[in-house]
Amino acid sequence: MTTISDMLAQNARLYPDEIALIELKPSQKLRKAITWKQFDERANRIANALMDKGIGRDDKIIHWMMNSINWLEAYFGIIRTGAWAVPLNFRFTSRDLKYCADIAEAKAMILGEEFTERVEAVRSQLSTIQHYILAGYNPPGNMDGLEDIIGSSLPSPTGVGLSVEGACGLYFTSGTTGDPKPILLTHKNMVCAAIIEEVHHCQSRKDNFVLLPPLYHTGAKMHWFGSLLIGGKTTILTEINPKNIFEAVQKEKGTIVWLLVPWVHDILMAMDNGELRKEDYDLNCWRLMHIGAQPVPPSLVQRWKKYFPSMQYDTNYGLGEASGPGCVHLGTENERKVGAIGKAGFSWEVRIVKDSGKDVAQGEVGELIVKGCGVMKGYYKNPYKTAETIRDGWLYTGDMARMDDEGFIYLVDRKKDTIITGGENIYPAEVEETLHRHPKIYDVAVIGIPDERLGEIALAIIDSKPGETLTEAEVIAFCEQNLAKYNRPRRIMFDKVPRNPTGKIEKPKLRQKFGAQ
């Protein structure tokens, strides 16, 4: 089996002068592009420069940058030394940085200028980091410049042999359920993700994948790996709003766009209120809208299809512990099953089980577990948590799901988010989906809060659409018409719903704010 580093080198040999990556920064009218040969050589230069600094096999390199061509160049440069790339969430605080650096025992850091203040705030406490490399030119005296080391290093391969079974990436979870957990992935995991992505999206070298979600997230990068596998073009859009998305698709002839749920909401709202007109853009090249990273309300897809009836829709399910997306896949041929996340993805096995580990009956809710070549090596330095999560090769996802009579899987909610009220289970995602159908609601989150009599009750935090006035009485009336009595939120609050960069609701923040346990 090859490695993803080999894939890049192969593309440089086969398509040296073809464009590999385009970076767009609309506010600065910036368009940057590099060929496969340039991409490969710059990654080699970074790798050689790191090795000159003593970086080698199994060292850990913090990789803290915003989406850019530099991000991918640095990523491949790191893994070509035999070291592990440790990409960090761009929303992490200085405290998060120290936490991750301590666990990884990081030896070096490549960072964007956006993160210098956060780094300097704890730099004296980062005892293991010996080298700091700043993206761009003119770094401060206590850092090297990425372009400087690229310019002074050789473009030839490092000669470091990479084993497909060897580790290459340490990914920290988003921390939506506590401190970020370190997920250790191998070259084999990465290659499997690339193959699965290409198969699921039927990608060809004619495609131009428009990349929007953050690259530190396994989902975004693994989706891009499909383009890497076949030598396809990718456009990295660094500033995301409805107008910029449409302009990027039109100008670069994007064919596949992966959107998060909040961005789909924003596009639809802009089109509904006339701020954005489909007729003003040539979007005929856009063949596939892929959406994921969280449960997708069917009502959202139905609204999208009214504007784009001939565009293909697809979704899938994955998690960092499974090397990103693809464990479960819907497929464009199954659009009639909107609301489902699909069936077992290419090369994956799936089951839905009880707490005992035995399969549930068809239609019953249980925990979704998956098995395949993307299952992580484990949680780094945490054998207990690894053994708890991976049992007999099966990855226990912590997500509750059910399967219909055709074998399609529907996510119900996170196991730990389930609300038990008077002995009945409330799955917040189902309540959220129902409330999303209200014409005045823009976003919603449902959490459990303590109740002396029932144990827990459901609290709905609602963000109404701009310009709309929504009352508690209206919400209660809507719930009475659309939800079983036990499933209805007992309390309603109006507030913004915090989401992380991949669109997931940050429920710990809501529990802290509203007094939930």
Could you walk me through the main structural features you see in this protein, from its secondary elements to its overall organization?
With 517 residues, the protein is of the alpha/beta class. Among the domains are: 27-186, ANL, N-terminal domain (Rossmann fold, 3-Layer(aba) Sandwich); 419-514, GMP Synthetase, Chain A, domain 3, CATH 3.30.300.30. Helix content is 31%, strand content 27%. It contains 15 helices and 27 strands. The strands form six sheets. Strands 2-1-11-10-12-13-14-15-16 form a nine-stranded mixed beta sheet, sandwiched between helices. It has a five-stranded parallel beta sheet with strand order 4-3-5-6-7. Strands 17, 18, 20, 21 and 22 form a five-stranded antiparallel beta sheet that branches. Helix 2 (36-52) crosses helix 3 (69-79), helix 4 (94-104) crosses helix 5 and helix 7 (187-201) crosses helix 8. The protein is globular and about 70 Å long. It starts with a helix and ends with a helix.
